[in-house]
Amino acid sequence: MFRKVLVANRGEIAVRVLRACRELEITGAAIVSEADREALHARLADEVHVCGPAPALQSYLALERIVEIAERIGADAIHPGYGFLAENAAFADLCAKRGIRFVGPAGDVIRAMGSKLESRRVMAAAGVPVVPGSDGPVSDADAPGAARALGFPVLVKASAGGGGRGMRIVRDESKLADALARGRGEALRAFGDDTLYLEKLLDGPRHVEVQVLGDGRGSVIHCFERECSIQRRHQKLLEEAPARIDDAMRSRLGEAALAAARAVGYEGAGTVEFLLDAHGRFYFLEMNTRIQVEHPVTEAITGIDLVKAQLRIAAGEPLEVGQREVSLHGHAIEVRIYAEDPDRKFLPSPGRITRWRPPGGIGVRLDAGVEAGDAVTVHYDPLLAKLVAWGRDRPEAIARLRGALDEFALEGVKSTLPFHRRVVRDPVFREGRYDTGFVEYLLGGSGA
User: Fold this and answer.
1) Tens digit of pLDDT for each residue in 334-355?
2) Burial class (CB in 10 A: 0-12, 13-18, 19+), 327
3) Which of 184, 244, 260, 287 could form a disulfide with 194 if both were Cys (CB 3.0 to 4.6 A apart)?
4) Cα separation of 277 and 274, whole Å?
5) Catalytic residue among 168, 184, 226, 290
6) Is 354 among the domain residues?
7) Structure confidence at residue 445 as a pLDDT band (50, 70, 90)
8) What is the pLDDT, as a whole number, of residue 2?
9) Percent with pLDDT over 70 in the chain
10) Which of 145, 173, 200 is the last residue of a domain?
11) CB–CB of 229/435 below 8 Å?
12) What letter does residue 135 receive in the DSSP assignment?
């Protein structure tokens, strides 16, 4: 096992990784920007090292500087968390070149799965169903013909994309040219790559993803699935596990996820994401080659610590369990608590937290990156915490989550707590009848 791990992230995921290091008796070193010197992850780390000024490009995204810090302090490995450098193939390559273990898959795997076009090709070759779409990149000239062949409505998507950036829904050909122009511009700004392709837009799909673990020794398992259909602008707001599917679908999704992971020789924790249509068909969407924000709901229903599993795999240890030993226990739901104002179209709400009274009780877990007195700046993602409730079944999990949300007191910044209190009381949610259009329905068609 590693002696020292540098956590190349901030906020709640940095806290989560540092706690896993502590349990494994690994020295946990944190990097901080100038703006994060007093952040919670800095207060909890065994060592703290400043990596640059507040802007992420000059600190948490400074590849060379982070690796230099790891070398200087004698870190055996770097855990990137999620976001920032977690799916940066060049960073994984740099770590390997300098003899530092990157906690995640190799750069080539990140590259293959990071390109939506390449990942579609790999998955199709492995027999995993993919959403009907263009066979390769589309130019402005050939896009109309490709869209007509698929049939409107279609999605314009960025090959290097994520989080809905570069994505546009096009319902008729007259809007296609503008969608391509806007999509290319946004993709270029976000990813430095304006490659676009087309996919058929599925009507009222559900978003279900499968957690996988591979040890690089040939063993790959799945840890069942998560329902992630409650989204706003393609960003998840609430996740639950297991999903509302029958055992036959569960088995088919699990086998497809394993086929996807085996196709790229997957090592570490990853997530294979699918869209489910109204006819019981599922299609590969993408593979995330990192720990997911919503990993706690899987931990709650399987008892597997996914972050510790990541660290053990990266240290060369085999998987501790086989597929037959992974079983479902109860139901778990997670809500993401952002410093955003739901009444103002979810605009960020920077400021200082003046009151922070988190909930407690049986089956309640809070993964937080802040405490009372902490500042929420404009420099980074406004995710403050993730609240998770577990129950013996879905109704009990909802009841515990409702109570925990009501108990949670947060002042000084606006937050998404009121939105989530509304969600858990909505009959469509409570009856489990929602799809990816739920937020638009809840907000009266505006989608905010």
Assistant:
1) 999 999 999 999 999 999 999 9
2) exposed
3) 184
4) 10
5) 290
6) yes
7) low
8) 98
9) 99
10) 200
11) yes
12) S
On whether both 160 and 307 belong to a single domain, the answer is: no
* All residues at 6 or more sequence positions from 212 whose CB lies less than 8 Å from its CB, including other chains: 220, 221, 222, 223, 257, 258, 260, 261, 266, 269, 270, 271, 272
Instruction: Note down the domain range covering 349.
Output: 206-442
pLDDT tens for residues 50-94?
Answer: 999 999 999 999 999 999 999 999 999 999 999 999 999 999 999
What is the total residue count of the chain? 448
- Given a contact cutoff of 8 angstroms between Cβ atoms, the answer to whether 7 and 81 are in contact is yes
Token representation of residue 166: 């570069």
- Return all residues near 26 (Cβ < 8 A) that are at least 6 apart: 1, 2, 3, 4, 5, 311
Note whether 262 and 125 are within 8 A (CB): no
Cβ atoms of 190 and 161 closer than 8 Å: yes
d(CA 13, CA 60): 13
Last residue within a domain, chosen from 175, 200, 225: 200
| Sign of the dihedral defined by the CA atoms of residues 392, 398, 404, 407, in that order | negative
290 among known catalytic residues? yes
Residue 147 in this model has a pLDDT that exceeds 90: yes
Residue 10 domain flag: yes
Start-to-end CA span in the chain (Å): 47
pLDDT tens digits for range 251-283: 999 999 999 999 999 999 999 999 999 888 999
CA–CA separation, 137 and 121 (whole Å): 12
CB 51 within 8 A of CB 65: yes
Cα torsion angle, 49, 55, 60, 61, sign: negative
CB 214 within 8 A of CB 226: no
**237, 279, 447 from 439: Cα distances, Å:** 9, 22, 6
Q: What is the domain count for the chain?
A: 3
Residues pairing with 351 in the sheet? 376
Look at residue 238 and tell me if it is in a domain.
yes
Distance between CA atoms of residues 405 and 422, nearest Å? 10
- Mean pLDDT computed over 200-221: 94
Q: What does the DSSP assignment read for 356-388?
A: EE---STTEEEEES--TT-EE-SSS--EEEEEE
